[in-house]
Amino acid sequence: MFRESLEHIGHALREPEGFAWRWQRIGSPYPWWVFAALAATAIAGTLSYGMTMGLLGGVQRMLECGLACTLAAGVSWSLPLPALYILNSLTGSRLRASTTFLAALVTTSWGGLAMIASIPINVFFSVALPYAPVVLLINLIVFAGVGVAMIDVFSRVMARLEPSRGRVPALWLALVGAIGAELFYAFGLFQFS
């Protein structure tokens, strides 16, 4: 079961378009634990990167930032997801709700791994230049880079699932970004000391 999950996760990260397309065309070829593993990958990425955001504030701040980053990312992705499905359906999409959810989950999993890959950048600059404006700038650059990569993944997946609609459903990610930025600010994640 664990090995099979890893194989599916590897496929989802190497070829997210084919992974989601297979789900839509074949039916339900992946067991429930694949969804759980994709969610765990996204959670691990946001939790670990969030902890580095609190690096200058000590262990307590690191834990707070890790949890807050994970909560903010989870809410910002899950809150507008029903709207994406409804708006897509109203405009002619024939995707099942589970396929839309899988496309978002694959994208967030990929983003979680991109956040893990960005940890050395954040740690290096936070330690080398421990000034709040510099650390804020580095984090904003990392989030922008990860966001652009996630937009690319999501739009490629949606374009493969419904070629006639192209990458238009990716416009939904503007709402995800706006909600995420609001939550990051509200949770104090951009306060560095």
Domain count: the total is 1
What's the order of the H and E elements? Answer: HHHHHHHH
Q: Judging from the principal axes of the Cα atoms, what is the shape?
A: globular
Largest sheet: none
Annotation field: number of helices: 8
* Helicity, as a percent range: over 70%
The residue ranges in which pLDDT falls below 50 over 5 or more consecutive positions are none
Broad structural category: mainly alpha
- Secondary structure tally: strands: 0
C-alpha termini separation: 44 Å
Query: What integer is the average pLDDT?
Result: 91
Fraction of residues in β-strands: under 5%
Cα radius of gyration in angstroms: 17 Å
Structural description of this entry:
There is one protein chain. The termini are far apart. Helix 2 packs across helix 7. It is built from eight helices and no strands. The model has no long low-confidence stretch (mean pLDDT 91). It has one domain. The protein is mainly α and 193 residues long.
Short description:
The protein is an all-alpha fold and 193 residues long. The protein contains 8 helices and no strands.
